[in-house]
Write a structure and sequence with these properties.
heterodimer; A: 45 residues; mainly beta; B: 162 residues; four-stranded antiparallel sheet
Amino acid sequence: MPDPGFGVGGLAITADSAATRAGDFGLALVRHADGSLLLAGVAAR
Amino acid sequence: MSSVYCGPPNWAVTAWRFLPGGGLDGGFASSGTLLADGVSGGRIDLVVDVLGVACHDLLVGSVETGARDLNGDLWAPDAAGSAPADLLGGAGTAGYDGAIAGGGHDLFAAAVLSGGRVWIAGGAAADTSPIHYRVTVWKLDLDGDKDPSFKADGVWSSSRHA
C-alpha cells in the first residue's frame, strides 16, 4: 500500500531537473537512518 | 502532433534527496537536486548504484569522456550536496579508466561495500568497440583508487569476449 505519510498519497514527484527536456529517471535509492532518501539517476539536458 | 528525440541523449548525473515526508530536502545542493555533468562534452553520464559509506552516499556510475567512451566514476555528496573531506580525497568525485589497456568502454552494474573497500561489477571493453565487453570486477579504496591487493592492479576481467 502506498504510504499516505509520504508525498501526496504515497507519491513524491519532483519538477524536471534540467528544465529543457523530458527524460529524468532514478536508478538507485538509499534510505538514511533519519528516514530521508537519496534517489540517484540521470536528468536529460 | 507527436515528436521524437533524434541523436544521442545528453544525460547528467542527478541525485534527489527527499525528507521523510516526501518533500525535496532544500538543504541539499540546489533545492534538493544535485546535477553533476561529467567530463566536459560528455553526454552519457549516469548513476547505477548508491552505497552508504562513512555516513555519506557514494554514487557509482559512468561518464562519457569522448565519443561513446565511458569511464567509471564515483561521486560523494554529503547531506548538503558538497564534497565530504573523508571520501574520494575530498574531491567529491573520482574517475578512472578500466582494466584493459586501450579499453574504451567501462560500464558498471552493481557495487557493494566490504572491509573499507568498494567492489564494483560491470563490463570493460578490450578495444574501442562497446560490443566487446568483458565481465569485470574492480576493487577500490575509499579514495576511489584501485586496490592492488586484488589481482595485479585492483581489477579482474574475463578472458573471453565476442
